[in-house]
Amino acid sequence: MPDYACIDYERIEKAIAYLVEHVGEQPSLDDMAAQVHLSPFHFQRLFCQWAGTTPKRFLQVLTLERGKQLLQQSRSLLEVSHDIGLSGSSRLHDHFVQLEAVTPGEFKQKGRDLQIDYGVHATPFGPLFVAMTSRGICRASFIDFSSLAHELAALQQAWPLSTLQHNEGLTAPVVSRMFHTQHNNLHASSQHKPFSLHVSGTNFQVAVWRALLKIPAGSLVSYSELANTLGYPKSSRAVANAIGANPVAWMIPCHRVIRESGALGGYRWGVPKKQLIQTWERLQIAPMHDVAGS
């Protein structure tokens, strides 16, 4: 390896060590570059060349991993967000899935001038109905537990003045990305942005759905734990109702919520499917020796 290449490698090695040590401070590009005595522009280019991704994306991956570790220690979501350098718990979910709720003004429009494309696709858990606006997925539902006609009717009820269009060419790549990439590594790739969801619900429902997005893949929480996290310790039933109204199967992970006793609890698309999804998700993140039982 040429001498200059060795120097560049050592710089990036030093930068990565710095990021690992200071992930809780969320260093800026300027901070990173200063550690190896390079301009931000030169550092960005060199980092991409050696690490295969941008410094920002690398830091996001470190942030996610640190967040998962802290959440598994039964720390509160707000504590975790602060400890990994995010401004608050509302930002934590943005690294996985970006959820954008319908504004009051948009709600009044009832989907006027809005086109919604939809399709049905095979998944490991049965046929999935997916509908999308220009801003993201607005509905996803397993139709082996209902029907296409039912889902279209529900979609039209939620957005009565919208135009529905069958367009599997648009929805197919989204579904493929949902299930053919390991869920916990979706955002480690610089080739993909976080999924965008465009949902309609009450403020409380949206708050519950945001809380669901913060549960790490492969982890489970109880309805009461989720209610406590939201600051409504006596509202487990209301939380359960909001979970039941989840418009986006799989991406808003209501399958990660169980009863205090450890029982699976209900699931709109059937308890057996809930069990299957939980098992599949754990297998995606389990080390091979754990799966093999050795």
Automatic annotation (TrEMBL):
Keywords, alphabetical: DNA damage, DNA repair, Methyltransferase, Transcription, Transcription regulation, Transferase
PANTHER family for the chain: METHYLATED-DNA--PROTEIN-CYSTEINE METHYLTRANSFERASE (PTHR10815)
Catalyses which reaction(s): a 6-O-methyl-2'-deoxyguanosine in DNA + L-cysteinyl-[protein] = S-methyl-L-cysteinyl-[protein] + a 2'-deoxyguanosine in DNA; a 4-O-methyl-thymidine in DNA + L-cysteinyl-[protein] = a thymidine in DNA + S-methyl-L-cysteinyl-[protein]
EC code: 2.1.1.63
Lineage: Bacteria, Pseudomonadati, Pseudomonadota, Gammaproteobacteria, Moraxellales
Domain HTH araC/xylS-type: start-end pairs: 13-110
InterPro entries attached to this UniProt entry: Homeodomain-like_sf, HTH_AraC, MethylDNA_cys_MeTrfase_AS, MethylDNA_cys_MeTrfase_DNA-bd, MethylDNA_cys_MeTrfase_DNAb, MGMT_N_sf, WH-like_DNA-bd_sf
Domain of life: Bacteria
Organism: Alkanindiges hydrocarboniclasticus
The protein's name in its UniProt record: methylated-DNA--[protein]-cysteine S-methyltransferase
